[in-house]
């Protein structure tokens, strides 16, 4: 079976794990935790980083850090993995769901600006959603597949409405936007190191930014808000720490970030070039003025539905190829049926059940890629 996306663990992972065992530093204290924070900050173009137990806990920390609280609204795209919305809910807040732009599959900045202009008012120095009476507390764009939205426009909107900008960049480490590294574009940026990400620590995440006071606050909250060795704690904290074992794997992976991202981009280019002549499908988006991290790659059926995707996946499975559908939008998920929604979610509605992701591991061989594209092409022609 050619897998969809598996870790490439052919670097220093084993040596670093052995060092953890030899030194007995296997928990949340150890040299690799400090090292992975330093490496991620550098590679993302920021000064500071806080390692977390997952991307979701990183998002939760970031939102709490900028003051998101109970009954607030946080603007997110509906087309995202459910962890984005869950992090909002973990704050006691409610997602305000917006649509995506067709050319990037990321938050539609033009729609966002119209929604804020028409549906909010200023009251007691807070931006209030007029229909619900809730405070709008933050904007959280998602860097879908490593694609970056129109951050120039989102930054202008955030400044105009005095809203913090928190980027869910789970799979976007290594991407650039108009020559800027991915961490330079928002107040806080959050990455995931889950097992299917381009670089992984088996689990874990990272919050990066340039506000030293804020990042120290997040570090404090993530380590149970402990003040002294005598178990003094000055606030309600969380045990959101990454372990030294996870960090050891992550450090070995980050040493090869450029290599891995290049391979991901090569895979995207190969699939896009291979399938661009087939009328029944379209290719994954290639946004202008940026270099995507190209986390996943695949095809989009022009006329399709989830049942068709499932059937196609089964046919590929019979040929020893793993393929999958992609995210079901948040507004169609049971826990968020009562979320605040924009009036128009047509792009998300029309896209999500036509996407097929194809094998894109960084250790996939050219022979395997050719076999995948030949098999997909053959099935499409039947």
List the helices and strands and how they pair.
Layout: H1 13-23, H2 31-44, E1 48-52, H3 55-65, E2 73-77, H4 82-90, E3 94-98, H5 109-119, E4 120-123, E5 126-129, E6 136-139, H6 151-160, E7 166-168, E8 176-177, E9 180-181, E10 188-192, E11 205-209, H7 212-222, H8 244-254, H9 257-275, E12 281-283, E13 290-291, E14 297-301, H10 306-318, E15 340-341, H11 346-351, E16 355-358, H12 366-381
Parallel strand pairs: 2-3, 2-6, 3-15, 7-10
Antiparallel strand pairs: 1-11, 4-5, 8-9, 8-13, 10-11, 12-14, 14-16
Helix pairs in contact: 1-8, 2-8, 3-4, 3-7, 5-6
Would you write up a description of this structure?
The chain is of the alpha/beta class and 382 residues long. The protein folds into 2 domains: 13-254, Type I PLP-dependent aspartate aminotransferase-like (Major domain) (Aspartate Aminotransferase, domain 2, 3-Layer(aba) Sandwich); 257-381, Aspartate Aminotransferase, domain 1, CATH 3.90.1150. It has 12 helices and 16 strands. It has helices spanning 13-23, 31-44, 55-65, 82-90, 109-119, 151-160, 212-222, 244-254, 257-275, 306-318, 346-351, 366-381; strands at 48-52, 73-77, 94-98, 120-123, 126-129, 136-139, 166-168, 176-177, 180-181, 188-192, 205-209, 281-283, 290-291, 297-301, 340-341, 355-358. The strands form 5 sheets. Strands 1-11-10-7 form a 4-stranded mixed sheet, sandwiched between helices. Strands 6-2-3-15 form a 4-stranded parallel sheet. Strands 9-8-13 form a 3-stranded antiparallel sheet, with no helix packed on it. Helix 4 (82-90) links the parallel strand 2 (73-77) and strand 3 (94-98). Helix 2 packs parallel to helix 8. The longest helix is centred in the C-terminal third of the chain and has 19 residues, at 257-275. The protein is globular and about 65 Å long. The mean pLDDT is 97.
């Amino acid at each position: 079976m050619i897998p969809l996306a598996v870790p490439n663990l052919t670097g220093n992972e084993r040596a670093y794990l052995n060092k953890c065992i030899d030194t007995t530093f296997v928990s949340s204290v150890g040299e690799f935790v400090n090292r992975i924070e330093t490496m991620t900050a550098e590679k993302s173009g920021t000064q500071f980083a806080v390692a977390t137990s997952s991307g979701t806990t990183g998002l939760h920390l970031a939102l709490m850090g900028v003051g998101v609280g109970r009954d607030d609204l946080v603007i997110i795209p509906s087309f995202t993995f459910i962890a984005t919305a869950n992090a909002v809910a973990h704050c006691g807040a409610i997602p305000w769901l917006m649509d995506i732009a067709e050319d990037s599959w990321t938050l539609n900045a033009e729609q966002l600006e119209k929604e804020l202009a028409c549906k909010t008012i200023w009251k007691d120095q807070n931006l209030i959603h007029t229909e619900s009476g809730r405070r709008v507390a933050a904007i959280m764009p998602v860097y879908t597949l490593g694609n970056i939205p129109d951050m120039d426009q989102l930054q202008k909107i955030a400044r105009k409405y005095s809203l913090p900008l928190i980027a869910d960049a789970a799979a976007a480490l290594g991407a650039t936007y108009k020559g800027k590294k991915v961490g330079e574009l928002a107040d806080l940026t959050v990455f995931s190191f889950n097992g299917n990400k381009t670089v992984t620590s088996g689990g874990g995440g990272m919050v990066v930014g340039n506000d030293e006071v804020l990042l120290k606050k997040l570090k404090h909250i993530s380590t149970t808000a402990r003040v002294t060795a005598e178990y003094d704690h000055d606030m309600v904290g969380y045990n959101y720490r990454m372990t030294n074992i996870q960090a050891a794997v992550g450090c070995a992976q980050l040493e090869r970030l450029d290599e891995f991202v290049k391979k991901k981009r090569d895979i995207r280019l190969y699939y896009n070039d291979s399938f661009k002549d087939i009328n029944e499908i379209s290719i994954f988006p290639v946004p202008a003025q940026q270099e995507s991290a190209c986390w996943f790659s695949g095809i989009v059926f022009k006329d399709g539905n989830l049942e068709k995707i499932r059937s196609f996946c089964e046919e590929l499975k019979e040929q020893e190829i793993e393929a999958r559908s992609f995210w079901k939008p948040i507004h169609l998920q049971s826990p968020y049926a009562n979320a605040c929604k924009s009036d128009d979610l047509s792009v998300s509605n029309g896209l999500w059940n036509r996407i097929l992701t194809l094998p894109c591991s960084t250790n996939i061989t050219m022979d395997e890629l050719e076999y995948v594209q030949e098999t997909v092409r053959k099935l499409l022609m039947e």
